[in-house]
Amino acid sequence: MSERGSLDQGIWILAEHCEGRLEEVTLEILAEARRLANKRSLKVSALLLGHGVGQMAELLPRYGADFVYWIEHPMLADYTTEAFAMAVGEVVRMGNPSILLLPATAMGRDLAPRLAARLDTTLVSDCVVLDINEQGLLEMTRAPYGGRLYATITAPDSRPQMATVRPGVLGKGRQSKGRKGIVRRIEVALAPMAVRTKILGFTRVEREELDISEAEVILA
User: Fold this and answer.
1) Could you give the C-alpha distances from 14 to 50, 82, 147, 159, 187, in angstroms and in order?
2) Which residues, 6 or more positions from 132, have their beta carbon under 8 angstroms from its beta carbon?
3) H/E stretch holding 117
4) What angle do CA 61, 94, 30 make, to 5 degrees?
5) Residue 208: pLDDT band by 50, 70, 90 thresholds?
6) 178 φ, ψ (degrees, to nearest 5)
7) Rounded to whole angstroms, how far apart are CA atoms 23 and 28?
8) HSE-up of 163 (CA within 13 Å, CB side)?
9) In the chain, which end has fewer C-beta atoms inside a 10 angstrom radius, N or C?
10) Using an 8 Å Cβ cutoff, are 190 and 87 in contact?
11) pLDDT tens per residue, range 69-110
């Protein structure tokens, strides 16, 4: 059922997934969004895009989402910049969240600038620390120049306040199996002619060792 009623205006995150599984960075950002929301008595909403991904919609509340906005469409089965930017942009305009967080992954780095342009808002990329102040402004800290300094940025005139978050710098929250949330399926209109990219296939790279970005402890 499509529901275009009032969407929550608190903190939104984009849930990234692959082959039927939520990516670790999604759970990291969701836990951080929950922490920030608790400081200001806000709600957390997760955007889930794809085709045949309904089972993941039920998992997101266990990690801190109050609402899950599930956007189901055949054109979202594989990631393309145009289709995702159109779909996310439409739903964000409907909800007008205060904060929107995306992972600083290959997908997030590709999508976020296009989305920020569509929404006419400020984007702070590759953040390593997030906080929210007494005025409800998101304090976004990034480490430019190879991490030689830290810069904390606010965007008081931008809505949503938008940031991408570097994977592996925030802790993953614990799953609470008893925690419930509201899952809403949102219908969006996507124009096939506007999507100029077509995914022909994927080549899997088998990893024999743990990705260093996913390691809990590194000895050097």
Assistant:
1) 12, 16, 26, 16, 17
2) 36, 39, 40, 99, 138, 139
3) helix 106-119
4) 25
5) low
6) -85, -5
7) 9
8) 27
9) C
10) yes
11) 999 988 898 898 999 999 999 999 999 999 999 999 999 999
Residues in Cβ contact with 64 at an 8 Å cutoff, skipping those fewer than 6 apart? 30, 31, 33, 34, 44, 173, 179
Residue 36 has a pLDDT of: 94
Distance in angstroms (rounded) separating the CA atoms of residues 8 and 96: 8
pLDDT band at 211 (very low <50, low <70, confident <90, very high): low
Residue whose structure tokens are 């925030």: 170
Phi, psi angles (nearest 5°) of residue 103: -75, 145
Q: Tokens in use for 211?
A: 């990705």
Q: Rounded to whole angstroms, how far apart are CA atoms 139 and 154?
A: 5
Question: Strand locations in the chain, DSSP E?
Answer: 11-15, 17-18, 21-22, 44-50, 67-72, 99-103, 123-132, 138-142, 151-153, 161-165, 182-186
Tokens describing residue 67: 């609402």
pLDDT digits (tens, 9 = 90+) for 103-123: 999 999 999 999 999 999 999
| 8 A C-beta contact, residue 171 and residue 31 | yes
pLDDT above 70: percentage of residues in the chain: 90
Considering only residues 206 and 80, tell me which one the structure prediction assigns the higher pLDDT: 80
DSSP three-state, residue 52: coil
Residue 4 has pLDDT above 50, yes or no: no
